[in-house]
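Blackboard transcription, Thursday session:
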Amino acid sequence: MIFLFDANRHLLAEIGLQDGALRQLVLTGAGERELEAFVSHWQTRGIPVMHSMEATKPDGTHEIATYFSYVQPREKGFGAALEKWAKERGFCPMDVPDYLLPLWECLARLPLEDSERFAMLLAIRLSPREALAEWKSALDESEMAWQKEHERSRIVLDKIKSKMGGELAKPFAKV
Amino acid sequence: MNAERSSPGTLEAPRLNAAEKGLRLARAERTEKEGKVLRATLMKSANHVLKDLELPFELDEEDGALELEIEADPPFSIKQYEGFDLEELKADPNFRTETRRIGSLEYVVTERIRDKHGVESDVVRPDGHGAYPGKEDLDAALQRNFFLAQRWFTQDRIFPEDVALIMHHHHSKPKEWLWRAMDALLASHPDLEPDLAATWAAKVIKGLTEAHRQRRETL
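(Written on the board underneath:)
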């Protein structure tokens, strides 16, 4: 799976690949705004890959030609082309192996900023595989701590609501 | 419903009373508290995982947010790159495509010369990086870097391939900078061989991109 982030570390898309070809592509809200036009272009024409070619002419001068080739989503080279395309445009593609997806799901449940989620995922991805079980415990522990605090918040807020009672309903009272 | 109309067709939200304001404040405070608890737990347990691994990074907190401090270069690089389709733009009358020559090197540059309404405009790069640097910028940069370039040149040589690399990869406006650097060098040193001017210009640009990178890191 490739996760595509923008330069501000907002998640734009989750891209599933099979043997290098596109299997599925899910855009987030931000991804829809930033990538929708590109994605429809990929579907109709393919993803553009820039190539540079240098040649030496008989008179000894060098010439650099730049051209594009297009890779279709169902072709095996799509994943590589997508990574290249994304890096060239300042996006941040991150290859996330399937065995990390349960940890990503834990991260996605936590109310973190996008950049924080990106940093955590990067840390997990850079860690050796034998550390993953510990990462899972760390994330579970954090989720539990947060849920406990969230429950406390609910109780506190319920108390405030009942204390204020009728005051809160005033703006909505029928005239 | 207690709604107010300030003008025909405009429906305003009901004004908040003190109770609603108090509740919102309490809710915001609780959310902040929850965030603090979550981040503190996450950082503590994550750093515990990372402690014995001797990895080149650590998790840190800055302004209430978790950040990954990476000692080595991250495993990806974000390049400013010219991401436009030259083939498509060749047929567009609002763009000018021309072949330029620096010493023994030729390259093609594509620039927007008219806006979308066909009105002639300042040259704007198709990839949206904005206008080119002013001549004054370049002169100032050259003054700072020219002697440096000369010193570098006595030590090693940058080949046209390096020039091409710099033009294509290193900066958001590399071609125009290089072109202007070449112009300025040839104007001030009419006897300079074009190849040598390309080499010097490349050194100047390389110095500029490095200075630019350092400035960005400092910021």
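Lecturer's comment: The first strand of chain A starts at residue 2 and ends at 5.
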